[in-house]
Amino acid sequence: MLLHVGCAQWTHPAWPQPSRDKLRAYASWCNAVESNTTFYATPSRGSVENWAAQTPPDFRFVVKLPQLITHERRLTNADGELRNFLHAIEPLGSRNHAVWIQLPAAFAPTDLGTLAAFLHQAPRDHQYAVEVRHRAFFDDQQAATNLERVLARVNAEWIPFDTGTLFAQRPTSFAERDAWMKKPRVTRRTRALTAHPIVRYIGRDSVTETVDGWAYLVALTIQWLTEGRSPTIFLHTPDNTEALNLARHFHTTVAAHFPTLTPLPDPTPTEPPTLF
Fold first, then answer.
1. DSSP-H helix ranges across 173-233
2. CA spacing 20 to 30 A to 91: which of 41, 106, 110, 132?
């Protein structure tokens, strides 16, 4: 069993990093990353080859589909764009943990037929993970069950974005207020559909509040590992300043209860601030 942990990005102004090869430095701290930049455009194959060259074979990317496919085309008439995208990320090889299909908040249970058709036609040599934001998928059990059935047909995972800790108290900073305006407020989800569950967790500016809020997730991760699953957990905060250290701390916390867990790499000596 493996536990992959990471952040929403591999570079941040608050993280001391070299002027070049920032991804290589990041990969010495975490063993996974959300690839959000691909949402805005399909990367060049050369760029992806560079990503692969800077990361070890056991590093994992969760690569977001471009918004042209998910938001503009709404998963229809996008076969060519999908294949171009999959061709571009091919150099990642096994580092490509899952193709991340983040759907707009307007994508409702009535649109599940479109998602089912898209997943049915998508090449089977990739794993897929879907993130929905429409409240009905979280508030209506039948809608959730129907989505799970669609995903189960192709062994795809449901990615929850856990904002419970963020919304537990009123915002106390600009970053928290901004996150309150932009992040979805949905019911916490703890059910894994595959052997490789993925969770996106967002805390608060306060490290203590962030750590206290993830207690359930530590227990859930240990449960998944015990069941033989290999989860991937992404740690966010409103400004992500402490996310790098928090991701490692989460892994350390789980490893204290699961000592056979494969350890994270030793960080390169860039001397980022140490919280723990």
1. 174-182, 207-213, 215-226
2. 132
Residue in this structure with the two tokens 């991937």, named with its chain if needed: 232
* CA gap 69, 1 in Å, rounded: 33
Lookup result for tokens 């800790």: 165
Angle of CA points 153, 132, 178, to nearest 5°: 160
Contact between residue 203 and residue 237 where contact means Cβ atoms under 8 Å apart: yes
What's the pLDDT tens digit per position in 211-237? 999 999 999 999 999 999 999 999 999
For residue 228, what are its two tokens? Answer: 């033989």
What are the backbone dihedrals phi and psi of residue 13, each rounded to the nearest 5 degrees, phi first?
-55, -30
The pLDDT tens digits for 46-79 are: 999 999 999 999 999 999 999 999 999 999 999 9
Report the residue count for the chain: 276
Output the DSSP codes for 103-170. Answer: PPTT--GGGHHHHHHHHHHS-TTS-EEEE---THHHH-HHHHHHHHHHHHTTTPEE--EE-TTGGGS-
**Distance from C-alpha of 11 to C-alpha of 23, rounded to nearest angstrom:** 7
Answer yes or no: are the C-beta atoms of 31 and 58 closer than 8 Å. yes
Task: Count CA atoms closer than 13 A to 49's CA, side-chain side.
Answer: 4
Q: In terms of Cα–Cα distance, which of 250, 262, 157, 146 is closest to 201?
A: 250
- Residue 119's CB is within 10 A of a number of other CB atoms, namely 19
Angle between helices 112-121 and 141-152 (to 10 degrees): 10
